[in-house]
Amino acid sequence: MDLVNPTPANMEAINRVQLARHDKRPYALDFIKLLFTEFHELHGDRKFFDDPAIIAGMARFKGRPVAIVAHQKGRDIKERQARNFGMPKPDGYRKALRVMKLAEKFGRPILTFIDTPGAYPGIDAEERGQAEAIAVNLREMARITVPIIVTITGEGGSGGALAIGVGDVVNILENGVYSVITPEGCAAILWKDAAMAPQAAASLKVTARDLLLHGIVDEIIPEPEGGAHENWEMAAEIIGGYLERSLAESDKLSVKERLEKRYLKFRKMGAFERV
């Protein structure tokens, strides 16, 4: 692969990244309004504070009680600052886990929506155990007995995304991306030049098509013509169909089968053979 000059493949990848970040793209609260009824948000991690970068609560999906956990970005400067640009601190992940455990207690499926540049890397987050909070979520989500359906709606940034991304089914919107690091961050490390982001995006295999090819996601959810930002209602309707089908598939499994399938799904990622 040419890592110096732009190629169609390079540009396609970075264009998908830009669409995933589009400032008119629907966020979690927008999808919640369009897809769910009787949504009641739950606040706080019962340890430190309520992180507004994570939305969590109970609702009904087509009449069925469910739990929702999602990243939430801001629509304008004031809201973006309040939501910390969708980058959760450890308190947000602990809130997410508290609601997921509550859902498990009452037998409610869990629906998560991922859209974050990554976990917040600030000193205060590190002091309160950012890495530990993410690690605990990974462990506990692997053990939760109720169905967990994950949908990547925009950016899926590293551990910040994965902390609510362990599920029976992982779907991604057509213009969503999922990566261990942002293309700009990768370019800054490898080439000391953020202008190399298109090449980095292509090399990282961040697009939905690449992720499906490598077994990171299960299905690609098509978007309305022009992208989800062009028609929120249609995008939500399409997502709703995939959520309904994914839930039906998980419902067919016993708890033992569900946990084993979930475990094997993630264990096989990154597997390779020496030849």
SSE topology:
Blueprint: H1 8-20, H2 28-35, E1 37-41, E2 54-61, E3 64-71, H3 77-82, H4 90-105, E4 110-116, H5 123-127, H6 130-143, E5 148-157, H7 158-162, E6 169-173, E7 177-179, H8 183-190, H9 197-204, H10 208-213, E8 219-221, H11 232-251, H12 255-267
Helix pairs in contact: 1-9, 2-11, 4-6, 8-9
Number of domains: 1
Label the structural class. alpha/beta
Summed up, the helix count is 12
What is the typical, i.e. mean, pLDDT? 92
Binned, the helix content reads: 40-55%
Q: Could you give the count of β-strands? A: 8
By CATH, the topology is: 2-enoyl-CoA Hydratase, Chain A, domain 1
Report low-confidence residues grouped into runs of 5 or more: 1-6
Explained architecture:
The protein is an alpha/beta fold and 275 residues long. It has one domain (8-266): 2-enoyl-CoA Hydratase, Chain A, domain 1 (Alpha-Beta Complex), CATH 3.90.226.10. It has helices at residues 8-20, 28-35, 77-82, 90-105, 123-127, 130-143, 158-162, 183-190, 197-204, 208-213, 232-251, 255-267; strands at 37-41, 54-61, 64-71, 110-116, 148-157, 169-173, 177-179, 219-221. Strands 1, 2, 3, 4, 5, 6, 7 and 8 form an eight-stranded mixed sheet that branches. α4 (90-105) packs parallel to α6 (130-143) and α8 (183-190) packs across α9. Mean pLDDT is 92; it is low at 1-6.
